[in-house]
Amino acid sequence: MITLDSILAQAAARVDTFARTAADIPYERKGVLYSEMLFLQAALGDALPPRLVESGRARGQSTHLLAACLPGTQILSVEHDPDSPDVPVAAARLAPFSNVKLLFGDSMVMVPELVQPGDAVLIDGPKGYRALRLAFDVLARCRPRAVFIHDCGLGSEERTFLDRHLPGTLYSDARAYIERYAFLDEPCRAVHPDSARLDHEAGRSYGPTVACLPFDPQRDYASLRRRTRVTALSDRISNGIRRRLGSPG
Ligand SMILES: C[S@@+](CC[C@H](N)C(=O)[O-])C[C@H]1O[C@@H](n2cnc3c(N)ncnc32)[C@H](O)[C@@H]1O
Known about the structure:
This protein has helices at residues 4-22, 34-44, 61-69, 86-94, 107-114, 128-142, 157-165, 175-181, 186-191, 221-246; strands at 51-55, 74-79, 100-104, 120-123, 146-150, 170-171, 210-214. The chain has 249 residues and is α/β, with parallel strands linked by helices. α4 (86-94) links the parallel β2 and β3. S-adenosylmethionine is lined by residues 28, 30-32, 55-62, 78-81, 86, 106-108, 124-126.
């Protein structure tokens, strides 16, 4: 079972090796933080999954860290936009890794077809309710070990929904975790001072934040998936009304 305590224990055991590996991997914009990747690795623990399916590669920061930190795991990375200038950047940095497969297509369709029982999944695009729909689809149909969703900071659609409907979710912005591992993100702060904030401002997360959704066979993920549609629709309606009431005239 994945808990914050198990993540803290695993992270403590892995941080030195992780820091040595990460030291050779420069930070890329749009990328996950180093502390977030240690969090993912610590959540997976000793029995590493045979495969990790990634949705949303961009310039390949997460893919590069996954490939280097999980050499025994096959990384299947799906990116939607084959014409993005990010494509050659990711291809060049990932070329040395034989455990990475770079795929193109829509994750909403491809990822549930790729994931097998026991795999891990990292979603970093699409975002918002689509990310949640993809996560619940995979959890309902594929029985992965865990699904990780990036950009689940306080105030995000993802976090608001998960806090309300999936209380067992774990987050990389947990104070006990950040107090120990924020130091890993100095290179990110050097590029973007706002990317990982240590000021603990109320209502604001430390950084973009990874959520960990461990697979629970008792959960009705199909019904959570339906609920994301209803919540997305009701958010759209109430935002529309608010805009209309707030608009002049
Ligand atoms: C924030 S970036 C990913 C950053 C990357 N994980 C890293 O750490 O460097 C989001 C990416 O998700 C991709 N994306 C968005 N929706 C997608 C979808 N439905 N299927 C596949 N990729 C998608 C975007 O094209 C974009 O490149």
